[in-house]
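S.,

Sequence below, as promised.
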Amino acid sequence: MTITPTGDVYVDEPWLSLRWDSEHQCVFAVWRGFATSADFQGALMTALDIVRERQAVNFVNDTRQLDVISDEDQRWLRYTWAPMAAASGLRRVAVVIAEAGLSKIAIETMFKGRRRTGLQSRMFGSLEDALSWAAEA
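The prediction came back faster than expected:
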């Protein structure tokens, strides 16, 4: 995935919008549906590029429309991405979850099994609450 930002928008695909939110000073992802493993992991690596470029400490990840997260991607997120995220300077991850569905179950499972990486992460039922929490940092 080659990224050329247009203003504050880094990725605008049918399955994801990834941008810098200057109002809340955070990397902001809105998942719009199914993403292949390559797209999912590539997007999260792009998020880390934005973290480094913007010296961001907050990432708001709206997963309410994300279809499913494979077991392999869950492990990758937990054991590979999270330590890289902490090393990149990221400090807080807010995850907006759906009220029901497979992605909600997967995210809740990941939160139960998360490792200590130096990242603060919280789940939220509303985007407004997630953005508010991110803006506190």
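The radius of gyration is 13 Å.

Coffee later?
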